[in-house]
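Worked problem 6 (solution included).
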Amino acid sequence: MHWKVWALLCTLTWAAWGVAVKYAIREIGWQRLEILSALAGLIIMLIVAPGSFQLKPDLRHLVGLVAGGLGALGAILFYIALSTGPVSVIIPLTSLYVVGVAIAGVLLFGEPLTMRKVIGVSLAVAAMIVLAGES
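Solution. The predicted structure is:
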């Protein structure tokens, strides 16, 4: 499948996830949600990619552990924000991480900096400013 199809499926899944997360936080709190989310993620990975886990003591695996830790910390902070604020603002606002990733793509991975990317990121930032000013 083309990467754009995977990205669209991801977007649709995350949209449903955002609604489910807001409901779950309201019902069970962010702490339980994080534990259940981690457990669900592990179960899904064991189903989707059985036998693919082989931890080795090297830099590549250390970077993977750091990435996982950052993802878990980001999820916790996200859940705390959702437990106190409106989902319609928090999810778009936290989507600003794409700005940092776009910059890292250019600086760290040698991806081309195109006018289309500059305009797209600028519009995303402007949209977030408008949405964040709502609450």
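Discussion: Residues 1-82 form one domain.
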